Model the fold of this input.
Amino acid sequence: MRYIRDMNLAPDVCYQALASRDHRFDGQFVVGVTSTGIYCRPICRVRCPKLDHCRFFVHPAAAERAGFRPCLRCRPELAPGLAIQAAGIASDIPPALSEEEASS
Done:
């Protein structure tokens, strides 16, 4: 339970959602697979990993901090409810420069 301490979901519930590709859990957590080093959304269409290889995270940023990279198939870093803006950290990111500021 150490990987999902901020959630009310148990690892067995997360794994069941992953194994059944339950759309109700999309945006609630991501799963990091230790054998591949990739993290996915629970609805990803790849083969379901063994429970021993799964780590569950509340947010994609937590999975990336743990050393996982995003799946190129399901794009978990862009999932609804899990984007940077939804995480409440968008204010910490400096805005992009406008063309006028970049040219000066």
Observations:
- Residues 67 and 90 are 22 Å apart (CA to CA).
